[in-house]
Amino acid sequence: MPPRDAVLRELRRAAPVLPVLLLVALLALPVPAGGQASGGGARPGTGTLADAVSALVVGHCAVQLARTGRRPLSGSAAVLLALPVVGVTVAALGASSAATGVAGAARYLQIFVLVPAAVMVLVRDARDVRLIGWAFVGLALWQGAIGVRQNLTGTGASYMGEDIRAVGTFGSTDVMGMATVVSYGLVCALALAFRPHAPRQRAAAGICAALLTVPLALSYSRGAWIATVVACLGVLLLAGARRAGRVLLAGAAAAVVLVAGLGVGSAMLQERLSSITQVTDAPDQSVTDRYTMWAASADMWRERPLTGVGLKGFPEHRDGHASLALSSGSDTAGAGSGFVRQPLLSPHNMYLLVLGEQGLLGLAALAGGWAALLVCGLLRWRRRCARPGGPGGPELECALLACGLLIWQLTDFVYADIGGPSTVLTAVALGVAAWWALGVRPAPGEAATR
Question: Residue 70 pLDDT > 70, yes or no?
Answer without folding.
Answer: no
